[in-house]
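Worked example 3 (structure in, sequence out).
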């Protein structure tokens, strides 16, 4: 890497990662619009489809979101009928999130999205796996 007095955009790792995330998220938009959910709501639903009954804090940890960001997302998903929020009997300070029947219908519709995204980008399964592995490796180092 060439040294310069001020940062050069093309020499920064943050810029291509930012643009890549923005572009890929943009590819999801038309599919998510059909389901009437945002990308952030989609991420929450994916966490719950894998393991429902999680606490708000647990969902936040998985998505790297604080409760101030997550709570409005959950309220919107609940108002759309996709989830229900219930206070834990043993500790009423803890709110657990469950998928409703409508949320299960959403899951079936959303299950087609990943394949549609892969179809829009001419990349091999190896390319995707390597990108995901590298991103996860660096994320783990950042979150130490």
């Amino acid at each position: 890497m060439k040294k310069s007095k001020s940062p050069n955009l093309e020499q920064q790792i943050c810029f291509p990662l930012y643009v890549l995330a923005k572009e890929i998220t943009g590819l999801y938009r038309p599919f998510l619009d059909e389901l009437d959910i945002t990308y952030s709501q989609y991420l929450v639903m994916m966490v719950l489809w894998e393991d429902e009954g999680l606490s708000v804090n647990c969902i936040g940890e998985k998505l790297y979101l604080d409760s101030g960001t997550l709570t409005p997302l959950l309220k919107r998903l609940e108002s759309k009928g996709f989830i229900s929020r219930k206070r834990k009997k043993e500790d009423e300070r803890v709110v657990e999130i469950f998928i409703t029947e409508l949320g299960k219908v959403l899951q079936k519709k959303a299950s087609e999205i990943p394949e549609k995204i892969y179809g829009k980008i001419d990349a091999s399964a190896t390319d995707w796996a390597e990108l995901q592995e590298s991103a996860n490796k660096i994320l783990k180092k950042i979150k130490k």
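Notes: The two ends are 26 Å apart (CA to CA). Strands lie at 54-55, 83-87, 95-99.
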